[in-house]
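Support case: heme C complex. Customer-provided input:
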Amino acid sequence: MNLKSLAVFVLPAFGFFACNNPAESMQTHLTFNSKISQGEKLFEEKCSLCHSMRPCVGSEMYSVTGPDMQLISNSLQQKFVKPDGTIQLEEANLFLTDYVYFPDQTKAIMEQSVINRYGIMPSLKGSVTDEEIRHIAEFIMTVKSE
Ligand code: HEC
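Agent response - structure generated as follows:
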């Protein structure tokens, strides 16, 4: 049994997902969690190739293509949740839609060190719709930090 198939076999049992193994994490997650939201499912389908669903630790950061999902949601929640806890979903959705279609250094809210490490995100125009991004925005804005 090679390491990869071992990971598929073992990880679901512990309920966590390999940081650098998004395809497998998606399968296990979808199978084992029936309450998964539409936004989370879409994020896994369209974004987790580069944005791991599980926080990356230590050297894992260097084996992935982009910041993990938790980093992204922390940044967006910092920017689009008011001090009184109100989630500015419309604003977050507008930002996200614009960024996913037209990513650009001048718009980026991630720390400069993240951008230095991974480079700017490629545009996903044509592979994800406005409607899908809206669901993803809901997920990103409401997911809790681990
Ligand atoms: C091909 C790889 C790739 C895919 C696919 C991808 N991203 Fe990214 N994304 C990146 C990289 C690299 C960064 C870090 C650099 C940056 O901020 O642009 C990033 C950064 C981001 C950021 C932070 C932007 C900021 O303000 O700095 C958001 C939000 C984001 N991605 C959302 C998404 C969503 C939503 C999807 C799925 C619809 C997605 N990404 C799919 C590579 C990807």
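The domain at 3-142 is CATH 1.10.760 (Cytochrome Bc1 Complex; Chain D, domain 2).

Case will auto-close in a few days if no follow-up is received.
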